[in-house]
Amino acid sequence: MPRHTVARIDLENLRHNYRRASELAGSARAMAVVKADGYGHGLARVAGALADLTERYAVACLEEAVALRESGLSHPVLLMEGVHEAEDLKLCEAEGFIVAVHDQHQLPWLESSPARPEVWLKVNSGMNRLGFAPADIAAHAMHLRRLGIRVTGAMTHFACADDPASERTLEQTRRFEAATSGIEGLSLSVANSSAHFRDGQPMFEWSRPGIMLYGSSPLLGTQGPDLGLKPVMTLESRLIAVRELAVGEAVGYGEAWRATSPTVMGMVCIGYGDGYPRHAGNGTPVRVRGTRVPLIGRVSMDMLAVDLTEIPGAAAGDPVELWGPHIGIDEVAARAGTISYELLTGVTGRVPRLVRPQS
Ligand SMILES: Cc1ncc(COP(=O)(O)O)c(C=O)c1O
């Protein structure tokens, strides 16, 4: 017997969002970022739905790239964190995976391996996560090319592009341009989702949209639909109990919410064991019978409580939207002190994904 707690996945909305990214990328081509199981939507499903739109995919690691091949997709795939051992270079060459090289310790692997996969150099333009110093890029490109390695691209990643007021993105772009300007034959790539929305942002040859494909806003304080994006995942459950609380009665663990007036309370069959954030506080909206109502008390592993006082007739069995077209995931994330990326990738395996349209 199913529990009616499901994540509905709308692949038409995914395709709409890809087209939006592509339009914003201008003359650059948008490579679909599908890491972390397609941001929780299902890697093969998401990649398959974009197969005729995107020319290549970007993933974090080799396992994800292999999963794309196993699902029958033959597009080039960029491994944004590169490989983790020299051995993996052979598979990358054989499968047409493009390897990002970001650190000194990876160079001897390329020098000693008989494999010659296509390589992109990662530039540390200021985020200080991965990448070579800008001043060293030309020398690394020349060195690898002398070894017969095809160095075809360079990329960097922005630290603050989600904040439209930040000057950092422009500074990082300038450093990246300076680092790569004298090197022939490189495709350049800088833009994550948020950079697609920055006026005047150079996009170069390839952009790398991730979160925007799934309908969430990449910009601080903005909702996906404000940016022309459509939610791809709707997290849905049902009421499984409705009860009346008298003044002074509390709800759930720690008695974190107490009725100050007579209250009709509903229990919803979803909790942090499904990936709903435990830190979503009192007042986080959910939707029942077309009305936004507030979450009350602490989220449990398998349940959460909502205040149904404003919905006469609400009853066990009523569907509840936790996030989706009416309850923005960006709003839920803000209430829980996190970001939509964490919510989407955190929906657990216990929640069946129901896909529309079915393939
Ligand atoms: C190197 C790199 N490029 C692109 C992306 C896509 O970013 P977003 O999901 O913000 O569009 C990520 C995501 O973390 C990334 O690590």
From TrEMBL:
GO biological processes: D-alanine biosynthetic process
SUPFAM superfamilies: Alanine racemase C-terminal domain-like (SSF50621), PLP-binding barrel (SSF51419)
Residues holding substrate: R129, M301
Active-site residues annotated for this sequence: K35, Y253
Secreted found in the keyword field: no
Enzyme Commission designation: 5.1.1.1
Boundaries of every Alanine racemase C-terminal domain copy: 232-356
Class of enzymatic activity (EC top level): isomerase
Molecular function, one GO term: pyridoxal phosphate binding
Reaction catalysis annotation: L-alanine = D-alanine
Keywords: Isomerase, Pyridoxal phosphate
Residues bearing the modification N6-(pyridoxal phosphate)lysine: K35
NCBIfam families registered for this protein in UniProt: alr (TIGR00492)
Free-text function comment from the UniProt entry: Catalyzes the interconversion of L-alanine and D-alanine. May also act on other amino acids.
Name this protein carries in UniProt: Alanine racemase
Organism: Marinobacter daqiaonensis
